[in-house]
Structure formats: structure tokens, C-alpha cells
Amino acid sequence: MLHFKRCQLLKQIAQKCLSRIHVKTDKHPQLFLSRTFALAELRKSWHSIYSLVGDKNIILMGPPGAGKTTVGRIIGQKLGCCVIDVDDDILEKTWNMSVSEKLQDVGNEQFLEEEGKAVLNFSASGSVISLTGSNPMHDASMWHLKKNGIIVYLDVPLLDIVSRLKLMKTDRIVGQNSGTSMKDLLKFRRQYYKKWYDTRVFCESGASPEEVANKVLSAVKRYQDVDSETFISTRHIWPKDCEQKIPTKFFSEAVIEGLASDGGLFVPEKEFPKLNCGEWKSLVGATYIERAQILLEKCIHPADIPAAKLGEMIETAYGENFTCSKIAPVRHLSGNQFILELFHGPTGSFKDLSLQLMPHLFAHCIPPSCNFMILVATSGDTGSAVLNGFSRLNKNDKQRIAVATFFPEDGLSDFQKAQIIGSQNENGWAVGVKSDFDFCQTSIKRIFQDSDFTGFLAVEYGTVLSSANSINWGRLLPQVVYHASAYLDLVSQGFISFGSPVDVCIPTGNFGNILAAVYAKTMGVPIRKFICASNENHVLTDFIKTGHYDIRERKLARTFSPAIDILKSSNLERHLHLMANKDGQLMRRLFNQLEEEHHFQIEKILVEKLQQDFVADWCSEGECLAAIHSTYNTSGYILDPHTAIAKVVADRMQDRTCPVIVSSTAHYSKFAPAIMQALKIREINQTSSSQVYLLSSYNALPPPHEALLERTKQQEKMEHQVCVADVNVLKNYVEKLAQNQFVGKFSE
Fold first, then answer.
1. What is the CA radius of gyration of the chain?
2. Contact (Cβ atoms closer than 8 angstroms) between residue 638 and residue 681
């Protein structure tokens, strides 16, 4: 390893690049300001001077019939400020004629120009402004308004708008005489509303103008209060002195850093946001993308990622790269069991649902002056999903973000291993380790906590380390969406009415997927029981039944379901922290004991609290194969081994008094040998490629995964690095990657 250089120039570079990483320099290290954090500081500078509105305008935007004028008047009364209706107070006074007359006189295109010019010649401050439905279609006027205003999008369900317009005079809507239906016209306009808003108010069906006005005021207050949504470590110890400042992080910082400096995981300081019943019902008919936008906007402060930008990221993440337009469809299997298909992404596993979005969140949050190396431990599917996700970034972002995935060299299915190795690209590499997943995950945590090494990388190569495992909040958060979406789909398909409970059964190893379901319940999804399904590595099942987490006498078993071949479950710490009322001192004691003594026991009161929501059981290898065989025979549906484990446990543990949603976490093609053994197909010694093609000819459900079939066509053999199970060897390889990827760019 190169010597740690201490020259003043490199000190300055390190101080710019480091966040939580403390470098041993003569001066105290300074925390960097990401571009979003810098924006938050700028906003805070004027928010601290003015009241709720101050010199800024509250600008209400939305389609015709959204209630902008009525809501604007109510807000004006509450705040005691001027209310301006663009139609009545600007356009008609400027033109000396009604808006409908002007539209008939000049036509649609000229009207938009005339309307835009009138707005450009207008200025106001400290007012409530109700826009016309067509104002957002004129860029220059919207930029003019945005300079001194907070644009609030009144997002009213489309069917509600259509119903309202039938009762109104609609002779002044631009484009209404073009032959396009009102529904299509409103759909077309949504792209403009999404482009300009700073914050969205989701107006559920039946909400009164007064309720909407209160929501607007709450949204504006949240937008202005940039310090309101912060994150703490699960191992944070609350100060006895209430006056003492709590060391918190913003969302952008939590995403960049991945792991807290004390070894804990980042969690929201306050409770998860909640949606009311009306808001949830309004999402029943929404698409997956629309649901994701609504839910994630409530969880990510616009000072970290502006709402409109977040919407763009979500649309990019869940686009043509998914083989099913529903993204995460729910399929009725039999009786009260439903399959949540989470394998329609480009790499065929549930990891795609977060890792197609997380790289865009990460790239937005990081400062432009630093390079980042993402370190990932994978037990199967995460590796290829991370490599695929980060490969889809734009060219500039790929030049400053690199990815290294560490996987157990002999612990994956042949297809999974070939997929990870074959997913290597210009900014991503796969590294096999002669050990198991737990060693890979523990080694990465140790690397993050080695301040000498992380400081060295920052100074020598301008490189900061981060993670993309579910220990990273930016990776875990998007998973909440598909659990909520699954429930809404059951309502939409008529299997249940909203408010009826469901159970969820999830094959569980690292506890991230099932924890996301817990967060979905916190937001208002009526989940009754969380059923934790384990394979022969059933440490989590034993813990849920006894409260004793014990890996002292356990040896990791290799199974047909490698993604849950895990003994140290990282995200369990987040859930215990939630159950224990954010007792960081307890988390330190428990997980330090797990590290040092390989076990811990929680108190009886916590065991009882855990068992109120959780039940658990495990499944043998034979039972797993038998479930694949019997399910195919009875329904023509092929389960992958992880899903089969969940089905076995659901059959055993669920009381059938409500529906159970079984998470199908991977496409069966990735485990062709196990599937062929379960289905008693003799041609079992074929190559993995021919096995996948053979299974695809069975005309079973779910249909073949085209991206996985395409992968089998790639005949070229890609090389990959293999390391011994030594954390120092892994550190040397990380340094080598940083040197090769960034040293030339860093010196420019």
C-alpha cells in the first residue's frame, strides 16, 4: 500500500471530499456539502427571515377543475395575504375581454403565447396565485413565476376532474376543440404539471376545499422546513441533556455514507409519513410509477431531491427495462394465496425494484467534486442487480461512480455466478471470495469503519466509499413501494375491499425485504402478520420464536435458495431499534455482543412485542423441491426455490382467515438445476444455458424472462478476480480498483 501523503494540497482535497470519514490531518476535517445540502442551506437562509410565505408566493397549479381558485381564496384568508387568480385578475384585465373570447379569437397556439406574455409582465410577492390550467405549458412564464414562488401541484384523480368539468362551463380550456377527449387532454397535460412543481398535494376523492387548503399549508411548511426530516444511527445514544444537539444526517447524507460511523444503520429520526384512507383509495387505480412517486415524495424531502426530479428518476427506473408493464404484478395462485412477482426487472430478481432507482438517487446526492466506490456484498442476486443499475447512469456519473461486488465464489447457483460475472462493465467489477456471504458482508463493514484506510483512499485517489446493500437507506426505501402496491392491486382486482387485512410471507435472510413490508404497514397498509420464511439457515426463525439470536454452533449450509443463505441479518438491527423505542445503547450492546460472542438475547417484553406481528418457520431442501413439484402439477406455475420456501411456510403458518401475499423474489430460470430436479426432468446434466432454454419450452407460468434468456446467448467468458478470505486482501483490491478507475481523472 502506498504511503499516506500529508502535503497541504491533498489535505484540501480530502477535506472537500469527506463526509463522515475523518482523515488524520493537522487540521480538523470539514464536512462536505453535497449539492442538495447546499441547496437546503440556501433555502434555509431566507426561510429563517420570513414567515410561512414572506416575500415568496404560494403558486397553485393543476388541471382545470382542480379547485385552484377556491383553495387559493381559503389560503389567502388563513394567511391574511393577497389572492391573485390569473384568469380573472391578470388575463382578462390585460386583454379587456374574457378568456373564452380570447381563445376563440386567436386559437390554441397563439393563446398560449399571449397568456405567457401576460404572466411575464406580472409580478407579485407574498401572495397566493392560482394559475390557469394551461400556464405550465409556457416555459418562460413558469420560470418567471418559479423565481419567487413555491409551486404547489394540486394532484386530483383524473376521474374526479372529468366529473367536475361535466358540471362546469368549459369553453376556455386550451385544446378542448381539437377532437381530443377531455380525459386524453388532461393526461397530456400531466407532463407539464410534473415538470414544474416544488411540492405536491395529493387530493383524494371527496376532499373538501378546506381540507385541501390545509394540506397545501402543511406541504409549504414541510418544503420550507429543511431540517424537519433527518436520520440517526440505530446506535445513537440520546443525550441526557435535552439542550444538547443531536448528531443527525439528511437523506442525501445517509444515502452517500451508507453505514453510520458508529457501525449502526441510518433510520428516520421521526416516524414514517402516513397516508389517510382517502389517499390510499385514490391510489387503487394508479400505476406502479404513480404510486412510487406519491409514496417516495412523502419520504424524501424536496431539499434533498426536488419532487419533479425524483419523478423523472422513478419514470426512468421503472420503464422499458421491466418485462411487465405492471412492474410488480400480483397473481392469484390458489385459495387465499397470491404471488407478488418481483422478478420482472432486467436481472430477474426483487433487487431490481430498488437497484434500478437507487443509483439515480445516489448520483444526484453526491457532490460533483468527488469519486465514489460502491462496495457490495452479495449472496446471489444483489451483485448483478447493482452492476446493472449503476451501468445505466449517464456517462458523467459513470466516470465518478464505480462498483465492486463481492460474492462467495462457491456459494451461488451457476446461473447467478455467470450473471454477476457477465454483468461487469466499464464502472463495475465482480470479485469472488473464498468464503461465505457473512464474511463478505462483515468485511465490507470493517472496511467502512477503518478510518485510516478510508482516509487514505480519499487523500490518495479522491475516492469515498459507500454501499448499495440494503444497509443503505436509499436501497431499502424503494422496496416499501411494491408491498404497498401489492395490497392496492388486490383491492383493484376486487379480491378485497380497502381496509381488509392481509398477511405477507417473505423468504428472509438479511431482513431487508420483510422490513420494507413493516414500513409499508407504518404508512397505512393494513398488513396483519409478517410471516418470516427461512431455509435450513434458520437463525431468524429461531430468533423470532425465542428471542435468542445464536450463531455460535451454526455453520452456514449451502441450499437451493442461496439469496437467504445468511446467518448475520443486518436489517434486523433496524427493526429491533424501532421496537425498542430507538434505544441506541441497547443496539450497541446487542450487536457488539453478536460480533464478539456470536449471540444475544432480547428481553421477554421485546420478544412478546416481536411476536405480536411476526410468525416464522423454516423449510427443508426436500420440502422446497416438493413444493415446486406440487405447485406446477396443480396450477402450471413454477416457483423459484426462495418462493417455494415461502409457500411451504405460508401453508404451515397462515390461518386462511385473510389473503396471504407470497413474495416471489426471483425468476425460476436462475435456478434451473433445482427446478429440473424438482420437476424430475432427466436432462439435468446439460449446460446452464440449455437448461434455461429447456424450461422456457414448458409454456409454464410465469412466462420466460427474455433478459435472462438473452444472457444465456452471451458465449464469451468474462474473467473475474478471486480473493482469499482475508479483509486485507479485499482492501488491497479496492485500492487497486480506485487507482485504476480514478487516479488519472483525479489528477486532472
1. 27
2. no
Express each pLDDT in 251-308 by its tens digit: 999 999 999 989 999 999 999 999 999 999 999 999 999 999 999 999 999 999 999 9
Amino acid at 500: S
pLDDT on residue 619: 96
Cell numbers describing residue 483: 408491498
pLDDT at 608 over 70: yes
**What grid cell was written down for 625?**
423441491
Give Cβ neighbours of residue 640 (< 8 Å, ≥ 6 apart): 343, 664, 665, 666, 667, 668, 670, 671, 675
**How many CA atoms does the CB half-sphere of 529 hold within 13 Å?**
22
Whether the ω angle into residue 562 lies within 30 degrees of 0, i.e. cis, is no
The C-alpha torsion from 8 through 13 and 19 to 24, rounded to 10°, is -30
pLDDT of residue 241: 62
Could you tell me the strand order of the sheet in which 330-334 lies? 330-334, 337-341, 660-664, 502-507, 527-534, 614-618
pTM of the model: 0.89
- Listed in sequence order, the DSSP H helices in 318-394 are 352-355, 358-365, 382-391
Indicate the SS3 state at residue 126.
Answer: coil
Rounded Cα distance between 414 and 671, Å, is 8
Closest CA to 295 of 152, 156, 479, 40: 479
Do 404 and 737 touch, CB atoms closer than 8 A? yes
Kindly state the average pLDDT of the residues 368-390.
90
Please state, in angstroms and as integers, the Cα–Cα distance from residue 460 to each residue in 144, 354, 733, following that order: 45, 32, 15
Tens of pLDDT, residues 80-99: 999 999 999 999 999 999 99
